[in-house]
Every structure is written in C-alpha cells, then in structure tokens.
Amino acid sequence: MKKIYFLSDIHLGAKTINNPLEHERRVVRFLDSIKNDASEIYLMGDIIDYWFEYKKVVPRGFTRFLGKISELTDMGIKVFWFTGNHDIWIFDYIPQETGATIYLKPIIKEIMGKRFYLAHGDGLGDDSLGYKFIHKFFRNKICQKLFSGIHPRWTVSLAHYWSKKSRLGGTVETFLGEDKEHLVQFSKDMAKTSDIDFFIYGHRHIMLDLMISRKSRVIILGDWINLFSYAVFDGENMWLEQFEEEINNDVNEDINISIAF
To answer: Residue 71 in 3-state DSSP?
Structure first.
C-alpha cells in the first residue's frame, strides 16, 4: 500500500544554515527516496524561509526543490503545501508551475478512513494581540499590494535579517509540557467537539507524538534544520521518523525528542 508523508519547517534559504545549497540537495534526496511508495506528500509550512511572489517575476533560488516537486506531481503523487508564517506569500506561481495544491488555512480532511486536522500551527491556541495583529497585517491584500511595490533589494534583505535575528536570538526548541503547549491545548479543546484521529502540525521544531484522548493524537513534525524528521501514515499506523542519512549523531545527542503515548 502507498504511504502518506508529512514534513515541515525546511526553511530553504535561511541565513542561519551554513550550506543552503547542500541543505536543499538533502531535502531533494529525501523526496527522491520516497517517490516510489508515496501517494501523497504534505508540506506543512515554512518550507521556504522567505517567499514573496511578484506578478511577473519570482524569487531567486530553490530550483532543485521546486523541480523535484514538479517531478513528483508529474508522476501522479499529490503534493499539498500549507503556508506557514515564513512562506505566507505564496500566490499562483508555485501551484501553477509545480502542480502542488496550496492551503492558506487549516483544514479537516479524511485520509484512508481517518480524520486529520492539518495546519502549520502558528497562532493556534495563541491569543496574544501582537501575533494576531501581525497575522492580519501580513494577510491583508492592501498591505501585500503595497509591499510588492518596494524593491526586492530591500524587502528580501529585511526578511532574511528578521528571520536570522529571530532564530539566533531564540532558545533551542523543547517540549514545554501539555499545559503550556498552545498546539496541545488547542487540540484538546477541539477534540471535545470534533471527531479527529490525528492533529498534524509543524511550526514548533520539535518531534512530538502525544495521545490526548482514547482516539486522538497530536503529531508535531520537527524540522529539517536539526532533526530531519517527518511522519508516515500507511492507512493504519502513524509514526515519526528521521532521515538517517543526514543525522549527525554528535549534534543529536543534545536534541530533545518527545514521544508520548
């Protein structure tokens, strides 16, 4: 039986990655390794560290990755791309050129008889006014139009500076506990009124497999900066894996991986 794959937070082009080209090749090698047994691939947001499509030009780079997505869809593999808080400004170029289906918001979907809640995860369960303002500002059509009028030499540099500063100024992502994880609390609340088997998220850069009820599980997919992780669903079982070819054992001794049943 064909499998379903989920991965997120690749952050292609991020300035905190030492070798962005090798990073992209690594992701392409993974996609190439699963193309013969995958029926669907879900890219759960922040796939590109910064992306803004203009009407007549597209950002530089990512040709290997976008070419591989095009190859997969040409083979009949369905690719679903959820925008995150870094690649929020995907419009029509990527879906038209690669054949990927783009989702701008969370969805509930039945896959092989199981119900999935699928989302990047940013903002879910987070009631902070600052985030809500930024989220509405970035998604506002007028603001997007005004932003597109600024020369890319300024906007691209600003976006990468902001992203790099945020990443370098942050702490190593670790599981905060059920009572402090916004995505876990959001999922628990939703599970009370909705029949969901799997809640699938990115965003947090941790690997988490957590039972929140007798039926429902929360899966947080990790990332492709340190963990090189993904989830697999075969119709009955769901599990997290890491792309072993790329894991540096010395680095991963310090990486927190939380799996709870």
So the answer is: helix
pTM confidence score: 0.85
Supply 85's token pair: 């808080």
Considering its fold, how many domains does the chain have in total?
A: 1
| 239, 200 Cβ separation under 8 angstroms | no
How do residues 164-203 score in pLDDT, each as one tens digit? Answer: 555 544 556 888 999 999 999 999 999 999 999 999 999 9
C-alpha span between 7 and 81 (Å, rounded): 10
Structure tokens at 225: 């900066």
Measured distance CA(154)–CA(241) in Å, rounded: 39
Q: How far is CA 124 from the centre of its chain?
A: 14
* 248 Cα distance to chain centroid: 22
Range of the domain at 64: 3-259
Confidence label for 133 from pLDDT (cuts 50, 70 and 90): low
Q: What are the tokens at 36?
A: 């013969």
Residue 63 corresponds to which tokens in the numbers above? 């040709």
Q: Which two tokens stand for residue 69?
A: 């997505």
State how far the Cα of 187 lies from the Cα of 216, in Å rounded to an integer.
Answer: 9
The alpha helices in the chain, defined as continuous H runs, are 20-34, 63-74, 93-98, 129-139, 141-148, 152-169, 182-191, 249-252
Listed residue (72, 90, 74) closest to 31, CA to CA: 72
CATH of the domain at 39: 3.60.21.10
Determine the residue type at 201. Answer: Y
